[in-house]
Specification:
Distance between the termini: 45 Å
Largest sheet: none
Structural class: mainly alpha
Low-confidence stretches: none
């Protein structure tokens, strides 16, 4: 019970921090552009995680095995390099509200892939919740920009596609990361590998 409560509190804290970071990234993206922002964020995060892992584990690079490294590395490339590139581009084009809303599709993508590929079961309640979320997102995404908005219809369409692409990449990345984190691996080691591989990916993109 305590573990479940801790997980729920961690999820709520993650959601709150996600909202704050979305607003900050949207403002920063308007000033420096999506690619530069993603590159700076990825390099800084990877460096801090490597230093923290070195400090806590006495080893800068986690020794977690080739199979786990592959899963987490591909997850980082898809979710953090490509997915976050789409995400930040969406922030720049249509703002944090619409882009963050589209990102709520990522868990649905992850759950659907886990069901199709790995045979994980989904309850009827979960399926109904996913459908309601999907309909709500489609409703808001289909809205035309307000007459007083500085966002053009072309920007709106492009931003929605970027947000949907980010959700897709993040969803696939979640599934890959969950497989890489199975067993006795700790979260710090897993995230260090994932962020480092994502940083390498965005260096190539930039």
């Amino acid at each position: 019970m305590m573990i479940e409560r801790a997980g729920e509190l961690a999820g709520l804290a993650t959601s709150a921090l996600w909202v704050v970071s979305s607003l900050a990234f949207a403002a920063a993206g308007q000033r420096m552009g999506a690619t530069r922002l993603n590159l700076l964020r990825s390099l800084l995060a990877a460096a801090l995680l490597l230093l923290l892992h070195w400090f806590l584990k006495a080893n800068p690079w986690p020794t977690i095995g080739a199979n786990r490294t592959w899963y987490l590395g591909i997850s980082g490339l898809l979710g953090l390099a490509i997915g976050d590139q789409f995400l930040f581009a969406g922030y720049v084009l249509v703002g944090a509200r619409t882009t963050t809303l589209l990102m709520t599709l990522a868990p649905a993508v992850a759950a659907s892939l886990s069901w199709i590929v790995f045979g994980q079961t989904m309850s009827l309640q979960a399926i109904v919740g996913m459908l309601i979320t999907l309909l709500g997102v489609l409703w808001v995404a289909a809205e035309r920009p307000h007459a007083t908005s500085h966002i053009s219809s072309a920007q709106q369409i492009k931003g929605v596609w970027f947000g949907a692409g980010a959700a897709l990449c993040q969803g696939v990345g979640m599934v890959l990361a969950s497989n890489g984190l199975r067993g006795d691996i700790d979260a710090l080691s897993g995230q260090t590998v994932r962020m480092s591989e994502g940083a390498l990916g965005i260096i190539v993109i930039a």
